Amino acid sequence: MTKLSILNLVPKYLGESYKDAYDRALKLAQFADKNNFQRYWLTEHHNSPAVISSATEVVISYILAHTKNIRIGAGGVMLPNHSLFQVAERYACLNNLYKDRIDLGLGRAPGTDKDTARLLYKKNFSPREFINAAKMLKLYFSEDVEKLDVKPYPQTREIPLYILGTSTVSAHIAGKLGLPYAFAGQISPDLIGKAFDIYRTEFIPSRQLEKPYTILSLITNIARTKEDAKDLSIKAEQISLQLMNVKEKSEFYNLDPENAPELTSIERFLIKTNRGLSINGDVEYARKELFKINEKYKADEIMALSFINEYEMLEDNFRILKDIVDNSL
Q1: Residue partners of 306: CB distance under 8 A and separation at least 6
Q2: Domains in the chain, start-ordered, CATH in brackets?
Q3: Cis before residue 154, ω within 30 degrees of 0?
Q4: Residue 276 class from Cβ within 10 Å (0-12 exposed, 13-18 middle, 19+ buried)?
Q5: Residue 131: which of 86, 178, 87 has the closest Cα?
């Protein structure tokens, strides 16, 4: 059966405090915990007032402290921005504190714009350097760490690693390392099939994983009625435009759909040509779309994210999604 998880960028909307955004992220994690979602991941983004999960491990710690069973993870740690040794120390510490509930997704992108990347990036990270970094983290979390003169403390043996990707380069890496592969369908929808094929073909079994395991992330804005679904779609279009405009530094708009500005022809073109993998509609539409996605890509796990700002509708979006995945896929 297909598993279901949640990815959260911790969006912040106009008119709310930072604490409001973090508390909404926590409340959603508690909902996922109670309703048996597989995992709950936080992203790493920088220099964005609209996405405030920049100190990812701090937000992860906050959520771990107020949930009981669900796995909480980084989706992911952008390795060029960090010292590997410190990554090992921080996540091993979290894993010891919270009883082996940590996932560690690894990415190669900076997670930000070029100006901010200059402040974060140690250097450009080639695929070979990324592979070596991932291998080093595997070593830090294995029995073989005892062979090293310098070891990260506290130690742990129980942190599963995941390779994140938006291109076929990451598929080769995940396959060769024998690690689970999480592909961002909301960013590169045209490459999903090719990336998964490469990963499955080149997969080499490892100590962590015997056979390929794929996670496909996508955006969902699902409502119980066509009218509510239309309202969510209007809001989603405006947020898509904000995400495309990297020069605009603002929290996400908190729009009333009835008063939303009419899209220009250029804006409609931008949304159409940059649309990632997403499901925007009512329950029946979502059911049909999820079935198509499942048949086409056969992902082992769906990881959904959403930019719905009203908490009750946000939670209901995931409740509907869970029901569809549990009973129809």
Answers
A1: 219, 220, 221, 314, 317, 318
A2: 3-328 (3.20.20.30)
A3: yes
A4: middle
A5: 178
Are 169 and 198 spatial neighbours (Cβ–Cβ below 8 Å)?
A: no
Determine the 3-state secondary structure of 193 from DSSP: helix
SS3 316: helix
Number of neighbours of residue 171 by Cβ within 10 angstroms: 25
CB 13 within 8 A of CB 251: yes
Q: Would you state the structure tokens that stand for residue 24, as one six-digit string?
A: 């909404």
CA-wise closest residue to 250 among 49, 52, 19:
49
Residue-wise pLDDT for 20-54, tens only, equals 999 999 999 999 999 999 999 999 988 888 899 99
Is residue 244 very low, low, confident or very high in pLDDT (cuts 50, 70, 90)?
A: low
DSSP at 260: P
**What pLDDT, on the 0 to 100 scale, is given for residue 117?**
65
- The CA-based dihedral angle spanning residues 76, 77, 81, 84, taken in that order and rounded to the nearest 10 degrees: -160
Q: Which helix (H) or strand (E) holds 35?
A: none
Model pTM score? 0.94
Residue 157, SS3 per DSSP: coil
Neighbour tally for 113: CB within 10 Å: 15
- 120 contact partners, CB below 8 Å, separation of at least 6: 46, 80, 81, 110, 112
- First-last CA distance in the chain: 7
Structure-block tokens of residue 214: 């794929």
Q: Are 10 and 327 in contact (CB under 8 A)?
A: no
Q: Which of 162, 140, 155, 160 is nearest to 92 (CA)?
A: 155
The total number of residues shown for the chain amounts to 329
| Neighbour tally for 153: CB within 10 Å | 10
What amino acid occupies position 166? Answer: T
> How does pLDDT run across 158-206, given as a tens digit for each residue?
899 999 999 999 999 999 999 999 999 999 999 999 999 999 999 999 9
